[in-house]
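Milestone M4 deliverable, item 7.
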Amino acid sequence: MSSYKEHTINCPKCGASGKFTTWDSVNVDLMPKMKEKVLSGDLFRWTCPECGETYTVPYPMLYHDMANKIMVYHLLQRNNPSDSNVVNLLGKTGLMSDYTLRSCYSVDDFREKVAQLEAGLDDRIIEFLKYYILHFDKSKQVPEGAELRFARAAEDKETGGMYLLFYVVHPSVPNQPFLKVSSNAYHEIENSGGNLNDIFGNQGTDYIEVSQYIIKERLGGGI
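Output delivered:
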């Protein structure tokens, strides 16, 4: 089920008011077109009807893909008791024991998480791969202090294999160029025998956060 509410927003720039729709939950099996609106960020954007300025408006939202058994919760802050109560209640109904359950705390993390999971990838491996590239890659393909954001997985027509594309987010590269990474790096982590649950927590019990924030918290800057 998908549900929404209508709100009135005042533009920070010109003060004009306009309508904005927030979605409590989005079920992409029942409303398939909503998947692209989540991935693009359109469901979090508001454009002033007077001056045309566009803003990102964060709000809590539950993304639900029944076919692929994915639920991703966008929340506004960590350690918020009211948010935790809702998340824990959903996670302990017993109906989602075979689901991938995730929590996110920024619009960018939320969109990226949906993209990772809908691509059929293990987001724990993706985040670990990003962390390694950002902190230990000697090729200097990514500026110091940059972020990597997963874009998509694609077929490498030259090799017949797959590769992963990441946006490079940094003030020195305003156009957000792509970083192309062979899927071999993904599979090396997958087959390494490392226990990703030790870093991120057990899957299938509660909503867990799988992010660069958690890796830094748990690893303290090293592997």
